[in-house]
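Hello again,

I reread your note about wanting to compare the complex against the isolated chains. To keep things tidy I'm splitting this into two emails, and this first one only covers the full assembly. Below are the input lines as submitted, including protein chains and any nucleic acid or small-molecule components. They are followed by the predicted structure of everything together. The single-chain runs will come separately.
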Amino acid sequence: MPVWFRFVAMRLFRLALLLIGVAVVAFALAKMSPVDPVTAYLGPNIAKVGPEQRALIAARWGLDQPVATQFLAWLSNLASGDFGWSATYNAPVVDVIGSRVAASAALMGLAWMFSGVIGFSLGVIAATFQGGWCDRVIRVYAYVLASTPTFWIAILLLMGFSVALGWTPVCCAAPIGLLPEEVTLIQRLHHLILPLVALSILGISQIALHTRAKMIDILESDFATYARAQGASRLDVALRHGARNAALPAITVLFASLGELFGGSILAEQVFSYPGLGSATIAAGVRGDVPLLLAIAMGTTLVVSLGNTIADSLYAVADPRIDIAAGAPLREIGP
Amino acid sequence: MTLFSVDRLTVAFRRYQGLVGEVDIGCLSDLTLDVVRGEVVAVFGASGAGKSLFAHAALGLLPGNAVVTGSIRFEGERLDAARIAALRGRRIALVPQSISHLDPLATVGRQLGWAARRAGRKGFTAGDAVAALDRFGLDGAVLARYPHTLSGGMARRVLLAIATLGEPDLVIADEPTNGLDPDNADRVFGYLRGFADAGKGVIVISHDLSAAVASADRVAVLRDGALVATEQAATFREDGGAGLTPYARALWRALPQHAFSGVAHA
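Full-complex prediction:
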């Protein structure tokens, strides 16, 4: 269908523009940072290398070229799939990210799903029984956790469940000293629980509060009142009209929160020494591993903006009032 | 026999004042009204007179901070909140004001199905839905449409169709002709008259006095939350409304189509 094709093409075009913009800014930031790639590469060996040799390495890497030339060279390498070499892990950036994504995807994907499903359910329950004890408990939970930093929650969980109770492991994604192929699924899950809980808790409160506010609006709407006039019970109104109408905004928030999920995972993975993308980001930042840092920045941009695009498209598919052909502003239409 | 009556119905809203004080803001006071089977009673009033509030009170749809006193009776039985809730949709049906009372994300067909289940109808089929729409001159294709694609007149007829699903004894129509052209308005009033002729009681809430007088048997005039007059519709039509109470007569003669005749008589 041409309308759909144009919609998708327009989105992809915008995505490409965004990626180029992020590439420029990220590259400029890396260039302006005090991190010197040669020093970072050499590490402790810096003492053995003289200024002439350093200049040689810099020339070999093209660091003596103008910044614009360097940028274009980097961009064309990116386009051909070459993300460079990670000095931190002494491996190609693509391999580093590949191995980390698997660990992070499980953590972030599950945390994302839980915060969506549990957050939405809590929001629906709180709004349905607005003012009741159920609503109060959920609200207090959501407000307290929405104002709590992830790393602090992570440390508390670690102190409680790993140190004091000893139920969960203290670190990592698998028992120390085992080869990757020897680790069982149960062991993986066991190591995943605490980071997952730490990461989910935050997302849940945000989705729950948002859903609750949206649901309350809907339950006060004309069509909810009319449903009651037709003899509908409170649960009937909440599920048929409330949850259905609140689902789209909740999904939008869920997709839009992908960026925060990345931010949260960096902190949570750091506290639990979980070998995912988040801890790789910190390591890359601390050691001045520019290629890895830039690649992660680009990857995150791609995922977050794809998430937003999906949210917008879902609106277009699920809300009958939106006509893509008419180019209606997608987010301004609410129930 | 009286089908439905309210006696000294008073509605106020409780608001907080300052830190601990509460104040009741009166909206309807001492409203007494009844309707018998086969009768159309119009409740007329300007905006803010409390017309819609009366409809919501009669259906038990007021928000939690509303304080309701007085009595509401249905077939002689005094209704409490739980009893009203049990009668809603089944014996007492509401025809709401506007298209915004339909869920924007569900097709007309689904909403008819939900309403039928809420009215206690078991085994409601697509054929039943088509039949319900057909009574109001709508074809089956409307079932697949979303509310925002309906015209004002069609939406009103869909709302009428939903109201009849539970075969109610009393129909309360809240501004059923708001925003309709005269042809469509006449049609809607015709359907409401038809309900009464079929033995139901009908309460029409309207701010259109001439339409209310034309279609109703009796007209109750609300002003600032209080009933100032309940007149036979015929009284309006006789002799320029000479037999009316002063406020009703003033309203009637203020209408564009009567002001001139009023002047001519004088």
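For quick reference: The interface with chain A takes residues 56, 59, 61, 85-86, 88-90, 93-94, 96-98, 100-106, 114-115, 118-120, 146, 148, 162, 166 of chain B (CB under 8 Å).

B.
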